[in-house]
Amino acid sequence: QVQLVESGGGLVQAGGSLTLSCTASGSFFSINAMAWYRQAPGKQRELVATIASGGTANYADSVKGRFIISRDKNTVRLQMNSLKPEDAAVYYCNANVKRYYYTPNLERWGQGTQVTISS
Q1: Closest CA relative to residue 64, chosen from 44, 88, 81
Q2: Who contacts 43 (Cβ-Cβ below 8 Å, separation ≥6)?
Q3: Cα–Cα distance between 9 and 6 in angstroms, integer?
């Protein structure tokens, strides 16, 4: 079983910074792409940023230039700068995990961490 455990959420003032972390644990052969999603109340879950196993990162237009996704082995981080009220949401870690070399990728989600922005 593979688990994704997130940390780092909390309350921050608009304009401030916050870093989220997510670590994959358990038994698996490899982790491919990892990503951060977010979901605000009443809205659909949206992709924030992705990072491939080789390190290539992509960002939603709404966070480009403000957020940085990084990865170290089985841990993915999201550094969030210049936070805006509209960044407030529950942030979810996502990973495509290969349990064994011969099995297809499985998608795994973290439990979510709340990010609250005060204006």
Answers
A1: 81
A2: 89
A3: 8
Nearest CA to 95 among 112, 87, 107, 78?
107
Token couple for 17: 């910074």
Torsion of CA 86, 89, 92, 93, to 10 degrees: 40
CA distance 39 to 47: 9
pLDDT, tens only, 16-36: 999 999 999 999 999 999 999
Q: Say whether 107 sits in a helix, a strand or coil.
A: strand
Spatial neighbors of 83 by CB under 8 A, at least 6 apart, are: 12, 13, 14, 15, 16, 17, 18, 66, 115, 117
Other beta carbons within 10 Å of 17: 13
How far apart are the C-alpha atoms of 5 and 89, rounded to whole Å? 17
Of 98, 87, 40, nearest in space to 59 by CA: 87
Q: What percent of the chain has pLDDT over 70?
A: 100
Check residue 73 and give its pLDDT: 87
Structure-block tokens of residue 45: 């879950």
pLDDT at 119: 86
